[in-house]
């Protein structure tokens, strides 16, 4: 079995044999890293150092599967085997606002809109080449509103 770990101090992600990671510490070879990983060498105090780490994905059945998951692990901070059974399409988190908050939300949107336009004037000098589009507002099945983000796009 294999484990994908994130070394805390170095902030890097690696594949290691599962038995290298225990109690928040991960063994790491001082030299010949690739050879020791592939051969699943038993760690010892002479040839290995121990570093603080956290497991991002455990009990991976093969090195090949672990390598494919490593790519995703480098892009995200949390992994689980459930994540890999689902579609790999990324989903954006959306802010949900109840309909009771609608009037407050409208006020905040107008306020944010005017602030953003002022910033775009000063940042880009000539604001006539940019358009600030209002975010789309959608309503869920449960009656709550979902707001998307503001997007500043160059006129075409």
TrEMBL record:
Sequence segments annotated as region (Disordered): 78-133
Domain of life according to the entry: Eukaryota
Protein name as annotated: DUF4806 domain-containing protein
Organism: Aphis craccivora
